């Protein structure tokens, strides 16, 4: 996109939201040349608040770089856009900045960041961004600037800019001009409860609620089946629950036909074809009993800036049940121990950093001892090589207990070499694979600890019996 197209796009796209902003904050880093300034980097934000006046952050005699935060009225926005488009000078506050570094830039862009992904600025709200990069940074003597900063007690340009302006400039980071316009409309939480979903929306009071709406895709249980509801929901003034300065909090309840397991919601306005924001929530069945399983959710849950991740969903990720992630090796063995421990197995953890050769977990149920080796990939030959001798050695210590060796791996049966399957069968090692782990997860999440543990032991025995009966062709390497 060329400069004129990008700036015209930004101007036109922001028109429906202009009443949201009261002032413009510009964070400026400039090169000093005699009595003039060359704009090095700028982050310019449109704000819904009246913000502080100009602040000088870094400006010293003998220092070829300066930093400020300037604030100007919102009615100067069109003039600012005009200067970026047609002038070689950008006037902000009391100073004029030469745009020499950006004179030949053809990499202009105007983008609208929506949904949970906010783009490179990580603003709290969705936003429209106009940006370009400098083209003449090879003319800047970074070493001299660094030495000057050192003399004035600054460590380097990167840290100075980040501490004062909250962004990096110079060096490997291409200097940029970014003009960001937050849209004060966002989904601020989804709360499923039984057969209803509460959607919380934060909106600027300049918005006519008749101009925004929600669409949803809700999966719910009905007659022991998962049914999907797709619905568009309008918003009215009666949904407003709070007024806080210029922001309104809106709560909308969407009813489904049964217990909600998963929901995705999009926020729309009438001016754009793409949604402004979106959010997603998933919930597992609350277990009937079993204190171990109930503890997993609060202990493993993770709160991020954009979403709250339920502990059971996090455990599914560590178990690689939704998708296989080979980088989660150390988490996978912990997740297996958490899963077995949650349903009442007595657990001895021997994985990293203890790293007991061959055995990662010992799971005990009365007189049954399960020696578990954990491997995240389908190459289980090495695990078998170290596990089987260790099993034979330990059996001598436990004459009165039944010892069962198992290998947990989040892969499909067809992905394992026939030679490894034959070795596992000959060593009487049970292969507990992705489908089995999914079954254990579901048993733990729906049954009490005692019943779930009993059925998991039955699953282990059933898997070993199935392996005994598995036919193989004459070429075990296929």
How are the secondary structure elements laid out?
Elements: H1 3-14, E1 23-33, E2 36-47, E3 55-58, E4 65-73, H2 77-86, E5 89-92, E6 95-98, E7 109-113, E8 127-133, H3 142-151, H4 157-165, E9 176-182, E10 185-193, E11 196-204, E12 212-222, E13 225-234, E14 240-244, E15 247-255, E16 259-269, E17 277-282, H5 291-300, E18 302-303, E19 308-309, H6 311-318, H7 329-342, E20 346-349, E21 361-365, E22 368-374, H8 381-395, E23 402-408, H9 418-426, E24 430-432, H10 434-446, H11 449-469
Parallel strand pairs: 2-6, 2-9, 22-23, 23-24
Antiparallel strand pairs: 1-2, 1-4, 3-4, 5-6, 7-8, 8-9, 10-11, 11-15, 12-13, 12-16, 14-15, 16-17, 18-19, 20-21, 21-22
Structure write-up:
This protein has 478 residues and is α+β, with helices and mostly antiparallel strands. It is built from eleven helices and 24 strands. It has helices at residues 3-14, 77-86, 142-151, 157-165, 291-300, 311-318, 329-342, 381-395, 418-426, 434-446, 449-469, and strands spanning 23-33, 36-47, 55-58, 65-73, 89-92, 95-98, 109-113, 127-133, 176-182, 185-193, 196-204, 212-222, 225-234, 240-244, 247-255, 259-269, 277-282, 302-303, 308-309, 346-349, 361-365, 368-374, 402-408, 430-432. Strand 5 (89-92) and strand 6 form a beta hairpin. The chain is elongated.
